[in-house]
């Protein structure tokens, strides 16, 4: 049954339930009402372009600090330092809210 649900999510184009992308999108959904629509759209787009392709499908519990650092360095490498810092901040927030996180990026 669980495998059927996972297959249905994948078929629908949705990320796996315990994936970083799923947790980050849930975190975004809880915060988006606090932001102007244009900011929320930009924020989510940054994740979709800069973070999800690299760690989005990973289970939150398996993401490590070196993986996040690699993502941040990629963004910094194109000269987008502020975007890199924002990506790290939202990634850390998503990891912290997950009960299955293996580390606390703020500790």
Describe the structure.
With 107 residues, the chain is mainly α. It has a single domain, classed as DNA polymerase, domain 1, CATH 1.10.150. It is 66% helix and 0% strand. It has helices spanning 2-11, 20-31, 37-55, 65-77, 81-97. Helix 2 (20-31) runs antiparallel to helix 3 and helix 4 (65-77) runs antiparallel to helix 5. The longest helix has 19 residues, at 37-55. The protein starts with a helix and ends in a 10-residue tail after the last helix. The mean pLDDT is 82.
Question: Features of this protein?
Answer:
5 helices, mainly alpha, 107 residues, DNA polymerase, domain 1
Q: What is the CATH architecture descriptor? A: Orthogonal Bundle
Number of strands: 0
- Residue stretches low in confidence (pLDDT < 50, at least 5 long) are none
- CATH fold type: DNA polymerase, domain 1
Determine the fraction of residues in helical runs and give it as a percent range. Answer: 55-70%
Q: What amount of the residues lies in strands?
A: under 5%
Number of domains: 1
Count, helices: 5
The assigned structural class equals mainly alpha
H and E string: HHHHH
Task: Summarize the helices and strands and which ones pair or pack.
Elements: H1 2-11, H2 20-31, H3 37-55, H4 65-77, H5 81-97
Helix pairs in contact: 2-3, 2-5, 3-4, 4-5
Short description:
With 107 residues, this protein is mostly helical. It has a single domain, classed as DNA polymerase, domain 1 (Orthogonal Bundle). The chain has helices at 2-11, 20-31, 37-55, 65-77, 81-97.
